[in-house]
Amino acid sequence: MSVLGFTDIVQGPLMQYLRLSQVIGGDVAEHSRLVQAAFDAQLQYIALAAESTQPGQYDIITLLKPTSDQISAIQAYREKHRTSPFFNHLSAISESIPALGWVAISFAPAPYVKEMNDAGQFYTNRVLKEWKEKDKNHVDWVKAWVQTLADLQVFIKQHHTTGLVWGGKSAVKMVAGPPPPPPGCPPPPPVIDFTSPAGDAGLDRSALFAEINRGSDITRNLKKVTADMQTHKNTALREGPAPFKPPLPKKPAASTKPITADKPPVFVQEGKKWLIEYQKNRADLVVENAEMNNVVYVFKCENSTVQVKGKINSITLDSCKKTSIVFDNLVSSIEFINCQSVQMQVLGKVPTVSIDKTDGCQVYLSKDSLGVEIIYSKSSEMNVMVPKGDDYAEHAIPEQFKTIITPKMTLHTEIVENKG
Questions:
Q1: How do residues 239-271 score in pLDDT, each as one tens digit?
Q2: Fewer C-beta within 10 Å: the chain N or C terminus?
Q3: What does the DSSP assignment read for 386-412?
Q4: Contact 251, 270 (CB under 8 A)
Q5: SS3 of 178, please?
């Protein structure tokens, strides 16, 4: 039943996703072949579990390797095609495909699949927003993929609620080599040298027992404590040195710098990609002579300013803090991910600004970019500066919403205005 249930997913919503991927073509079609291979590998693993007893941990790792390799290939394809016009499609799959790792979770794997499905929702929403008015195939493509993972979650609840069930009676026949040998035996205890003067120890032991057997005579040589030696009668004996107190740790001097493991700064061009990483306190970072198909990726920069001259494809700021970006024109979008206190200024035109998991983002627009689309999620303190004469008019992006259920049993969401 487990194999048949998974086969229904492969022949149902997954097949629809594969068909629509071929209709869309390009990178989406090529990417879908890797997805199909991943599901085929998982189907073989589930079929093996249905007819076999659970193998050892080393064998399980070996058996899961085909699925793991396909997941890595899917995510690597996305990273190598960041300039693709279907980058959102590739990202939606790459962010949620780890759902196939549910077979390695030993307790309640169904919620994990839902979590992975939600992880890809940010990009599926972008696909819907970009293509819903252009091509219905892309909308159906999103629905097919989301339904695939939703059916996978239902399948797990029905057949593998508490983890993958190994329901067979035969042992797994491993093709791979034997597992690594177990760790060696602990070292033997130290050897006692009986040739040394051990007889002395025997004599000492005999003398000890002889002293114990003396009975009351054993206390004959003890010194008697007189009244002047007793602390409760002689208060002077109570005065002693203060109890020991460990010294307080010394505070480091103001000039002492904490030891850090900062990585060296990077400013290089690798093919079509400009990498700007780990820059701190730099205001002179300039990208020049970039082409239209180039992308700029800014990672973990702090207190820095980057200027991009000319027209390029896209810009991404990832995990940056107090960093500003100034650019002329973009073909696609600028994206902020996991940033704090960042700013951007466009001098020409930018179609899309994406803000994800960012606290504090100032967006300065030009007159040519007033038609920009701003997509955001899990972010706060966002402001848009719209040109007004020689100055800017500041507008705050809403962060709080209210959702109600209508009489038609649908959801209606509206902005909650801040009246404070």
A1: 555 454 555 555 555 444 444 457 899 999 988
A2: C
A3: EEETTEEEEEEPP--EEEEE-TTS-EE
A4: no
A5: coil
